[in-house]
Amino acid sequence: TVKEPTLGLADLPLRPELQGAEPYGAPQLDVAIRLNVNENPYPAPAAMSAELGEAAAAEAAHLNRYPDREARALRADLANYLNRTNPGIVPLNADNIWVANGSNEVMTHLLQAFGGPGRSLLLFPPTYSMYPEYARNTHTGVVTAPRAADFSIDLEAARQAIAAEQPAVVMIASPNNPTGTATDPEVLAALVEAAPGMVIVDEAYAEFARQGTPSALELLADHPRLVVTRTMSKAFGFAGGRLGYLAASPAVVDACRIVRLPYHLSALSQLAARVALRHTDALLEKVDALRSERDRLTDWLRGRGYEVAESDANFVYFGTFDDRHAVFSGLLERGVLIRETGPDRWLRVSAGTAEEMAGFRQAMDSVARDLG
Ligand code: PMP
């Protein structure tokens, strides 16, 4: 190996916008109760693991060949999944779907295709902290518009920002991370009307939405510059499988196909995702359980006098604390890992199993007693 002990990152000719930057990521700590990255706490059903093992063993014999570059079979399966779970939409097919290694990569493809030097991305903070990084990595500028006190999007402020900045891309997480806030489809439609370019609605948490919260998928048929991104990381409990996707007009998919690396999605990833999709019903049963835990958690926190943002996701955002770090650290000392993110008086906690939630509640009361 090449070793030069005196040479550090600062000595390398790094691009100026990367100088001083830290790699993104929440701490991966080995504690008993991990509620910090909105993972699904339930392991895969045994039938799914068994099927995946067999399928992977069979596929292993063909790994000398490159995978299907277009991932056609998986894209058709995902279209079927969306059609089945969103009966109100104009049916989608494989041409409407794009896939990559997590929705993070899908959104990077979108920024590579539609962002770039001299163009800007409009964001609504507090929101998912990776968005500015996609922009940085693709030389896209970032502009922002504020949210209201309840974290909903302020449509008038958004319209003004769009008029003033003419962003090439508008990106809205709905439900939003870290706040859990869903955005009304009417607001989304108004933003697509106002925006001169692409509007991306990141629905990473859509399956956890409360009854009656509509998906932006319903708007796709009338809005060719709208893109809805999804992921199997959360509802499907497939974060380790790294499979994200989008639904949009076929032209948007063609744009992503231009910028993707050849064979970006491995044969094993495609296969594993297809196996997981065959177990959709068993996996989505756990979504119901997580929704109930989220609602119980909200009620419990409110009962203790905390402020809790309305959540349609598998986590809740709560506060407010004069010193949130003291609360975070107190919980960590008691074996419970949550997340310090967004406005500095708030904390985010993921919905876990009933046992994990009981552990969180107990630790939270103990921390509150300690901090007085
Ligand atoms: N969007 C949002 C709003 C998220 O919170 C996350 C994960 N934390 C992602 C996208 C990315 O998920 P993945 O790359 O695992 O699909």
TrEMBL record:
EC number: 2.6.1.9
SUPFAM superfamilies per the UniProt record, alphabetical: PLP-dependent transferases (SSF53383)
Pathway(s) of this molecule: Amino-acid biosynthesis; L-histidine biosynthesis; L-histidine from 5-phospho-alpha-D-ribose 1-diphosphate: step 7/9
Taxonomy, superkingdom: Bacteria
Cofactor(s) needed by this chain: pyridoxal 5'-phosphate
Ranges of residues in domain Aminotransferase class I/classII large: 33-358
Catalytic activity reported: L-histidinol phosphate + 2-oxoglutarate = 3-(imidazol-4-yl)-2-oxopropyl phosphate + L-glutamate
Pfam families attached to this UniProt entry: Aminotran_1_2
Molecular function (Gene Ontology), one example: histidinol-phosphate transaminase activity
Location of N6-(pyridoxal phosphate)lysine modifications: K234
Keyword annotations of the record: Amino-acid biosynthesis, Aminotransferase, Histidine biosynthesis, Pyridoxal phosphate, Transferase
GO annotation (BP), single: L-histidine biosynthetic process
Similarity-based family: Belongs to the class-II pyridoxal-phosphate-dependent aminotransferase family. Histidinol-phosphate aminotransferase subfamily.
Subunit comment: Homodimer.
HAMAP family documented for this protein: HisC_aminotrans_2
NCBIfam families, per database record: hisC, PRK03317.1
Protein name: Histidinol-phosphate aminotransferase
Species: Naumannella halotolerans
Organism lineage string: Bacteria, Bacillati, Actinomycetota, Actinomycetes, Propionibacteriales
Name of the coding gene: hisC
